[in-house]
Amino acid sequence: MDTLRVELAERGYNIHIGQGILKDVGAYIKPIVLSEKVSIVTNPSIWDIYSNILETSLLAEGFDIDLILIPPGENHKNLKTVSDIYDRLLKRRMDRTASLIAFGGGIVGDVGGFAAATYLRGINCFQIPTTLLAQVDSSVGGKTGVNHPMGKNMIGAFYQPRAVIADTATLKTLPRREFLAGVAEIIKYGVIADSGFFAYLEKNIEGLINGDSNILSYSIRRSCELKADVVAKDERESGLRAILNFGHTFGHAVEAATGYEEYLHGEGVAIGMVLAARLSAKMGLCREDEANRVIALIEKSGLPVSAEGVKIEEIMEAMKVDKKAAAGKVRFVLMNSIGSVSLKSDIPEGKIAEAVSGK
Ligand code: NAD
Ligand code: GLY
Asked: What does the alpha-carbon distance between residue 321 and residue 80 come to, in Å, rounded to a whole number?
């Protein structure tokens, strides 16, 4: 088992990563909680598979638990679901000493984390991520929130969990497509912050996508270390943290242009990273061979590298909507080289269109 720390002074916390550690959750959180009252937020299919292990672990430590099931899917990541969670917490008379466990993928983590951040102005939250994407990205760093009809993740709060507990054994039941979506975020960390890790991924991508336990554990740990380091330096994204959005400007546009139904978030990010790498080379910011290495690794991992059937105009249009939401500026994270990126705005529209069309 590995334990890392997100260094945020009084808001600092541990990330525990290991195979089979779900059965130890009760023991990990026992010393941190303020009372035995715990509500678990999850979705029915995750609970079907893992209720036994988690419940046993919590009951063995004397926890008084309540289960709050939320429906799966991005269209339920909204204020209605959060309000349903508040109802349950209030009916149970959960006070400020109570805790909420968000047990699932990024959707459960974002919704549960936001409910914990806002219920009684904040109760203890524990993140127990069960998708690869959530283990390497969404459970760490304290971004919580929900969608609004006018945009994705528009309502939210920075709210750090008290601990993250990532059991890599839970990934064995994850559908392959969901697993690969998490691989996209792992590749992202190599590109933005660690050329050595990127080279490791180039060498070990077969093992990673086939779930080799040593390669997977190392990749999750290194990703969390890199994210924790960025978050510790810039918790609220006043600058540096934005590098975590490499591939996301194009990625969001691809997701939005397809109504959030065609591509998983990680797949959108994969396509977005290909376009961002291409744009970086086109702008003369990075060498073409380095951009091509990024594209080749994404392709080798079996992730999509282009948005099949989506018209360039649709992607450009979605980016304009994003631009409005971001006070008139579309910001891109572009590569200087593998392991180093910078934030850029005011990229000529023609260059963006060329990158999208693959010219
Ligand atoms: P998800 O939460 O929808 O989970 C994917 C699917 O896998 C779901 O159907 C779920 O029921 C199922 N599942 C989860 N764990 C399983 C397991 N162990 N075995 C079998 N099935 C399992 O998707 P996701 O990719 O984890 O998260 C995507 C969300 O995360 C998006 O809403 C995105 O905006 C958000 N996100 C947030 C952050 C952040 O920093 N807060 C970062 C990245 C993404
Ligand atoms: N996923 C981007 C961030 O946590 O800032």
From this structure: 24
Same domain (yes/no): 251, 155:
no
List 185, 225, 235, 290, catalytic entry: 185
C-alpha to C-alpha distance for 173 and 176, rounded to whole angstroms? 9
Q: Which domain holds residue 156?
A: 2-173
The pick from 110, 114, 137 for probing ligand 2's pocket by mutation, whose C-beta has the most ligand atoms within 8 angstroms, reads: 137
pLDDT at 260 over 90: no
For residues 221 and 160, give the distance between their C-alpha atoms in angstroms, rounded to a whole number.
19
Structural domain ending residue among the three candidates 173, 195, 216: 173
Give the global pTM: 0.97
**In sequence order, which ranges of the chain are alpha helices (DSSP H)?**
25-29, 44-60, 79-91, 106-118, 132-133, 176-193, 195-209, 213-233, 248-257, 265-282, 288-300, 312-325, 349-357
Task: Give the model confidence (pLDDT) of 312-324 as tens digits.
Answer: 888 888 887 765 5
Ligand 1 atom at shortest distance from the alpha carbon of 173: 19
Cα–Cα distance for residue pair 206/22, rounded to 1 Å: 27
The residue from 188, 221, 222, 252 that is catalytic is 252
pLDDT band at 358 (very low <50, low <70, confident <90, very high): confident
Give CA–CA dist 125/109, Å, rounded: 10
Q: Which two tokens stand for residue 283?
A: 């702008």
CATH number reported for the structural domain that contains residue 26 in this entry: 3.40.50.1970
Tens digits of residue pLDDT in 199-255: 999 999 999 999 999 999 999 999 999 999 999 999 999 999 999 999 999 999 999
Whether 185 and 105 have beta carbons less than 8 Å apart is answered as no
